Amino acid sequence: MQNAQARRVLGIVVAIVAVLAALAAMRSGLDFAKHETDMLHLVDIVLRLEGGARLHEGVMTPLGLWSVAPFVMLKQAGLGLGAALKWGQIAVAALLIFPAYWVGVSRMRTVPLAAAFGAAVLLLAAGMVYGGDDAKLSLSMHYNRWAWAIVFPALALVILPAGRQNTWADAAVIGAAMAALVLVKVTYFVAFAPAVILGLLLRGQGKTLGFAVLVGLGMLAVQTLFSGFGYWQAYLGDLLTVAASEVRPQPGQSWAQVMLSPAYAAGTLLAMVSVLWLRSKHKGEPAGLILALVLPGAIYVSYQNFGNDPLWLVLWGLMLLVLARGQDDRRAMTLQGALALAFVATPAINIAVSPLRHLMQPAAVFEPLVAQYPDLRGVGARFGNIAGTYSLIEEDGDCTLAQGAVGYMRLMAERLEQAGLAGEAVYAAGLFNTFWLYGDFTSLKGGAPWYYGGLPGIESAGVFVLPECSFKPEYKELVMRDITKRGIKLEPVYQDELLAAFRLQLP
């Protein structure tokens, strides 16, 4: 790509971030319309880290530090909670300007393709919905979008032949991306590292691979200087705990369903056809083999993510459109690329237009998620109207919380305060451990925002709560089993129609 075209590409990617920033600036705070418990758990992590807790050592989660670091740093800088979450996304997009630009000018061959790739990366970073086809907004699962945005440039540099060669620039983007994946969501690193390593070797870019490893290790070393070796030990411990958990083997469809069920089979089969096509028609070009290495990791990540959106098809389609340029079978490859983009159009468009939809939401329907942080707002109608359903099959009448999770949390915190239990650290069976956001309670040291199994943080708790309703009643059963197994004594202190509270006596 010539210098004039390169300047146009730079102007486009900078303009995209500028537009995203302008849209963010035009509405104060952050308004979301679904997944309020996910937002509560994100808030829990951000505020605990702002208060001095250390991820993994004081907050149990399988996510890496960089999945929340932009939010925490902006909150510490003085922004409101909603503003910190919103502008944290813009900050991530800004950090991806150079990777998006470099892939565009060194691999994408035309300005429109470079612009499309840049837009894909930056909108994934700054989107305000995880994907899917539901237009309601939320930052739930934001780390999945960030990880896709981070890995796209690295994979593109490996898949596509270089039009403009710069070993150091390639190595910087690839190495930084792979290190970032370790510190955002390590699943992506595990899924795509083999394709990156083998792909560079297939292209004869051993020097680039070596420099990329140095860049990545250097970044992780810098993080270690700030966090200490204990961070990595605790991080590994959290990952192993979640991997061994019987609670969430996967958040959606099974591996086979994500690969070959009617909802996903077209994309998977198209990917296989394109690999075979490239291998048969362009034997001297390793892109087909590299894509074959990318495919298992792409399907695995989709299987592991909530919603199971095959967002990898965005990258796949763009790669095929680039590879088609100047080839005798250009029309066939272009058709394959266009089909890949069509198959993923619904979640991709949903993410792309979400920053604009945020601006257009009616302000009257929103109210603060947490009273002391008024610039983070959810739909008030979803917070109340607490409702649980009882199975007609089960004799014990377990209650499944159907709606009003935030209102339920608020009301339980109020009841505990009225019972004279204020000032305590509370451990709740199941998903809820955010009492400290809704009353005079302290957060659990080592507690987990989500329930992954075990009893994380219970050593710091003074009160144990057994909610009447839970998202999944079996979680309560697992907690009570672990309570019994560890020999923890429970002394009843309060009970009503919402919950039962006990004093904890650790062995």
Key phrases:
3-stranded mixed β-sheet; 10 strands; 20 helices; 507 residues
Structurally, the number of domains stands at 2
Number of helices: 20
Coarse morphology: elongated
- Strand ordering within the main sheet: 6-7-10-9
The main β sheet shows up as: 4 strands, mixed
**Contiguous uncertain segments of 5+ residues:** none
Strand percentage lies at: 5-15%
The overall average pLDDT, rounded, is 93
Rg over CA atoms, rounded to whole Å, is 24 Å
**N-to-C SSE series?**
HEHHHHHHHHHHHHHHHHEEHEEHEEEHEE
Strands, count: 10
**Distance, first to last CA:** 69 Å
Give the % helix: 55-70%
Q: Give me the secondary-structure category.
A: alpha/beta
Write a structural description.
- The chain is α/β, with parallel strands linked by helices.
- The chain has 2 domains: 3-251 and 349-357, no CATH class; 387-505, no CATH class.
- The protein is built from 20 helices and 10 strands.
- Strands 6-7-10-9 form a 4-stranded mixed β-sheet, with helices on one face. Strands 1-3-2 form a 3-stranded mixed β-sheet. Strands 4-5-8 form a 3-stranded mixed β-sheet.
- Strand 4 and strand 5 (399-403) form a beta hairpin.
- 50% of the residues are buried.
